[in-house]
Automatic annotation (TrEMBL), chain A:
Membrane topology: Multi-pass membrane protein
Keyword set includes Cell inner membrane: no
Taxonomic superkingdom: Bacteria
The protein's name: Probable membrane transporter protein
Subcellular location(s) per record: Cell membrane; Membrane
Family: Belongs to the 4-toluene sulfonate uptake permease (TSUP) (TC 2.A.102) family.
Record PANTHER family: MEMBRANE TRANSPORTER PROTEIN MJ0441-RELATED (PTHR43701), MEMBRANE TRANSPORTER PROTEIN YTNM-RELATED (PTHR43701:SF12)
UniProtKB/TrEMBL annotation, chain B:
Transmembrane helix as UniProt keyword: yes
Name of the protein described by the UniProt record: Putative transmembrane protein (Alph_Pro_TM)
Keyword Membrane: yes
Phylogenetic placement of the source organism: Bacteria, Pseudomonadati, Pseudomonadota, Alphaproteobacteria, Sneathiellales
InterPro entries from the UniProt entry: CHP02186-rel_TM
Membrane-spanning residues: 229-250
Native source species: Oceanibacterium hippocampi
Keywords: Membrane, Signal, Transmembrane, Transmembrane helix
Organism domain of life: Bacteria
Signal peptide interval: 1-23
Short name of any one Pfam family annotated for the protein: Alph_Pro_TM
Length: 306, 253
């Protein structure tokens, strides 16, 4: 059943969008990530203009993180204080990111920016996760799993403006979560992602936030950052396709429920390893597109009607 | 009351030559629809352009050429070049007043109907379209970008690769189908219909039609562009609500 997307200005099959939403939702439920990093490239792949893909995806992430945060909230796994500090950084970052995006769209380099950001960040995160999960599996086989400390003290803990985060059992400089929030805010505006895939490892490895609090807290702040990103894109470039976002969302919500149920049957190392593999594949595809000789070196874009 | 009759006759007398002149017009044309609505289920449509030509017995019938043009647009053409192994958009040319859609139909191969100079003058055939770069008119690379622009438009189906057929029914009636793809730009279109005989243009007519977004899609598009702030507000609220509803619906307690 075809449907005309009013902002993307193209006709797509409804079931294709619902199906994409369901598959990505399933994966995001299974791996506990937003799935934006998979959805945005997929949307671009089916012909949605990159600017529309990024902006509409931000709108969809608002919904999926709201639906995800409730379960964590009920279990008390949201550190609101930490979330608000991350958020302050995130809002500032998303202004900067949206500014860069708008500027580069004018000079025709926005696709390059999106691809480069994807290749760079997915590459780093993907390989780190892959090594970590393979390493964990190997260690487990050898039976040499050491019990880790709660967190290690590094120079990061010597920074000023210390703040106490009760639920995370941390006493650290507020500059750290502010900075991480800021960076992820920029990426969120540029890549059309919630940024969970960067936020989560950063919170675990850099801040030492306990794993059970990480996902809920990151989801909590992603809601507001992606709401802000949606706002900025809608006002600056009118590229938010609410119809597209709603269709993806409908599929994603259902898919996510099945994904969550399925993941409880798999071992954590396998789940992380699979996710890493997927991240590396998406990264590889985008890197290939950057390097491979394009079919037509010339591309066109309409800049104004008379 | 008596004054009405001469008055009526006078009007009739004046109208008659006009009416007969119209009947003698060599070309009468129309389009199946002057308003195409792009609704939320729009997958493209076919425009039927039809008409009649007035033929003189024993004279050649003549040939019909139809040119359909979409709204004028400004288009940037960018060329990717390899920079440190990566393909990056570098050189760019901006072209003004390029039709957003362009299609030609003819009753015979174009070369048999009109001369190359006539084709250029009437802009028949995408290679004869007149559009110039905003800057760098004399740049030796400009023609490369112009060809690339046409190639991209052909690939998107917005310029037609082949000339559509104008078919004749009997001696005087003709019809042609012009396919309008799903990705056409909205705006005002023109259809120019020319009658040629022995390499001379006998008559030309231009009618206009409107392609408009309609229904929900139109409302969303207008709202997003006219009230971006409130559009964003509603988009975000909608997302918050549907996320919340989903959480409630799938709650496992």
């Amino acid at each position: 059943m075809p449907i005309y997307l009013p902002i993307a200005e193209m006709t797509v099959d409804v079931f294709l969008l619902l199906g994409m939403g369901a598959v990505i939702g399933f994966l995001s439920g299974m791996f506990g990530v937003g799935g934006g990093f998979l959805m945005t490239p997929l949307l671009i792949f089916i012909g949605v203009p990159p600017a529309v893909a990024v902006a509409s995806q931000a709108n969809q992430i608002v919904a999926s993180s709201v639906s995800g945060v409730f379960a964590h909230w009920r279990r008390g796994n949201v550190d609101f204080k930490m979330g608000l500090v991350l958020l302050a950084g995130g809002i500032a970052g998303s202004f900067v990111g949206a500014g860069i995006f708008t500027l580069l769209e004018k000079i025709g380099q926005v696709e390059l920016l999106i691809s480069l950001s994807y290749v760079f960040f997915l590459g780093i995160i993907g390989f780190m996760m892959l090594f970590e999960s393979v390493g964990a599996l190997v260690k487990q086989k050898r039976g040499t799993m050491k019990r880790r400390k709660l967190h290690q003290h590094t120079f990061l803990h010597g920074l000023p403006f210390k703040m106490r985060f009760r639920r995370s059992k941390l006493y650290i400089s507020a500059m750290l979560p502010l900075g991480i929030g800021f960076l992820v805010g920029i990426l969120s505006a540029i890549m059309g992602v919630g940024g969970g895939f960067i936020m989560v490892p950063a919170m675990i490895y850099l801040l030492g936030v306990p794993t059970n609090v990480v996902v809920g807290t990151s989801l909590f702040q992603i809601i507001f950052v992606s709401a802000n990103v949606t706002f900025l894109h809608a006002v600056a470039t009118q590229t938010v396709d609410a119809m597209l976002a709603l269709l993806l969302l409908a599929g994603a919500v259902i898919g996510a429920q099945f994904g969550t149920r399925f993941s409880s049957r798999l071992r954590g190392e396998y789940v992380r390893g699979l996710l890493a593999l997927m991240v590396v594949i998406v990264c590889g595809k985008m890197a290939y597109d950057l390097v491979a000789t394009p079919l037509d070196a010339y591309s066109i874009s309409v800049i104004g009607d008379e | 009351m008596r004054h009405w009759i001469p008055c009526f006759l006078l009007t009739l007398a004046m109208a008659l030559p006009a009416a007969s002149a119209r009947a003698a017009a060599p070309l009468l044309t129309d389009i199946s629809s002057h308003l195409v609505s792009v609704t939320s289920s729009f997958t493209g449509t076919d425009l039927l352009i039809f008409g009649a030509i007035d033929t003189v017995p024993d004279a050649p019938r003549g040939d019909i050429v139809i040119v359909v043009r979409g709204p004028a647009q400004d288009v940037v053409v960018r060329r990717k070049e390899r920079v440190a192994g990566i393909w990056v958009n570098s050189t760019a040319f901006t072209f003004k007043s390029l039709p957003g859609f362009y299609a030609v139909a003819a009753s015979a191969p174009l070369a048999e109907i009109l001369s190359a100079s006539q084709a250029r003058r009437l802009e028949v055939g995408s290679e004869n379209l007149r559009f110039t770069p905003e800057k760098g008119l004399g740049d030796p690379e400009a023609p490369l970008f112009k060809t690339a622009l046409i190639r991209n438009r052909l690939r998107d189906g917005l310029f037609s690769r082949e000339t559509a057929t104008v078919s004749f029914l009997g001696g005087t009636l003709f019809r042609a189908n012009i396919h309008i793809p799903a990705n056409v730009p909205v705006g005002s279109y023109t259809a120019s219909i020319y009658l040629f005989r022995d390499g001379d243009i006998i008559e030309g007519q231009t009618t206009s039609l409107l392609i408009q977004k309609f229904g929900v899609g139109r409302t969303i598009f207008d709202f997003a562009h006219d009230q971006p702030f409130f559009y964003a507000l509603i988009a975000v609220l909608l997302a918050l609500l549907s996320g919340w509803a989903a959480a409630l619906f799938f709650r496992r307690d």
